[in-house]
Amino acid sequence: MMMGTAIIYSATYTSTALADKDDTFNFTAGTLYMYDTNLFRAPAGANPPFDAERSDSMWKTNVGISIDKDYSLQKFKFDYWHEETKFNNNDFLDFNGNNYNAAWLWAVTPGLKGTLSSKRTVDLVPFIDFQGFTRNVRTTKFQNFDFDYSPHNKWHLLGGVSKLDVENSQVFIQEQSFKFDGVEAGVKYTFPSESFFKFMVRRRDGEQVPLGNAFLVSDGFKEDEQELSMFWLVSGKSRIISNLGHLKREDNDYSVRDFSGWFGGINYAWDITGKLNLTVDLSRRIAAFQDFTSSYTTIDTIAVKPTWAVTSKIKVSANAQYGHRKFLNDGVQQNFGRNDDMVSYGVSADWTPRDTMKFGLNLRHEERDSNAVNRDYSADIASINGQLTF
User: Model confidence over 233-248: pLDDT tens digits?
Assistant: First the structure.
C-alpha cells in the first residue's frame, strides 16, 4: 500500500567527545529548527480557529543509540531514538515519540540470505490533507521477513511476509487507521554490471476501524499487486531506476471503494562532472483516499534536482517539483472531479566537516491550486539542522 503522507524532518547534534562512526556502538543526539508560514495549510485570508496561529516555529530534538555488528555471514543493526517536538505558538501540537529500527541481515550461505526487521516511527500527521486543527499523531509499526535465493548470483528466487500497523490518535476518515498482513514472491535477474530486473507479486489482507454506512468505511480490504522493476547502470556516470506496476483493491463491504490502476516511475541520475549531479524523476502513485466524494487518488509527478559538491565537505542542491493529483471514484456523495496542481521548489546546503558531524540548511516554497473549495494554499518553510555521532 502506498499512502499520501510523508514523514519529514530529522537531524541530530551533540557537544561531547566524538568517536568513529564505524564503531559497533554509537550515541546520537540532535535538533532541527523549522519555521513555517502556513502550518495548517490554510487558504489565503483564512486563519485557524480557537487560539491556533497560522505561522509557527518548531524545535525537534532527539537522542538515541546505534548498534551495527557483523558476525561471520550475519549482520545486526539496531537504531533507537527518543524524539521531542515542540511548537512555539501552537503548543497543543507538542508530542514525544519513541522510534526504533532493528534488522538482522541473515545468511545461511552466500547464495541464501535475507532480512528479518522491525520498525516503529511516531510523527505528526501533516495538514496537507488532515484539516482537523488538532494534534493527530500517527504511529507506524512494520515487521518484515524476506529471503533471496541465488546459488549463482544470476537468477534469484525472492519471497517474504510482512505486517504493517498504522494508528492515528484522531479519526482521519480519508486515511483511517489500518493494518495488513502481506505476502510476496518473485524472481530477479542480475547482470555482471550489477544491473537487474525484478518481478514481484504481492497480496495484502487489511483491517481498518469501521465507520459504517454514514462514511462508507468498512472493516477491511484486500489488495493484489504486480510490479516489474529494474536498475540499469547505463555507464560509469549515469544510471536508471524504474518500475511499473498494477494495484487492485477490493473493499470488504462497499464496492464504491474498490479501485484498480497503474503506478510506476523512472529515475535518471547523471554525474555530469565529478562535482555536479543531476537527478530527474517521473512517477505515478495510486493510493486509497476514502473521502466523501472520492475513494482513491492518483498523483503524477515530475521532479528535478541538481547537486553541486562545492568541496568534499560542502554540497549545495536545488529542487523543483510539479504534481497533478486526481480524486477518483465516488464516495458517500458523487464525485465532482476534484483536481489539484501542486508546485514546490527550494534550495539546501549540507556541510560535513567530518564523518561524524553534519549540518544542513533548507529553504522551500510549496503551493496547491485546487478546484475544491478552501483547498488552495501557499507556504514558505525554512529549517536548519545538525547531526553528530559519538
Answer: 999 999 999 999 999 9
Q: Is the pLDDT of residue 40 over 50?
A: yes
Where do we find the cell 520498525?
A: 119
- Here the cell at position 191 is 547482470
Number of domains in the chain: 1
CA–centroid distance for 272 within its chain = 28
What is the per-residue pLDDT across 147-157, written as a single tens digit (0 to 9) for each? 999 999 999 99
Taking alpha carbons only, the member of 134, 108, 138, 113 closest to residue 125 is 138
> Cα(286)–Cα(296) distance, rounded to whole angstroms?
7
Assess if residue 29 is contained within a domain.
no
Q: Per the structure block, which three cell numbers stand in for 131?
A: 484539516
Domain containing 276 equals 268-389
Query: Contact at 8 Å (CB) between 345 and 313?
Result: no
In a domain, 309, yes or no: yes
Q: Across the chain, which distance is largest between two alpha carbons, in Å?
A: 65
Tell me how far apart the alpha carbons of residues 247 and 244 are, in angstroms, rounded to a whole number: 10
CA angle 377, 384, 375 (to 5 degrees): 10
- 377 burial (CB, 10 Å; 0-12 / 13-18 / 19+) is buried
Q: How far is residue 56 from each of residues 41, 42, 73, 94, 146, measured CA to CA in Å? A: 12, 13, 49, 12, 43
Within a domain: 118: no
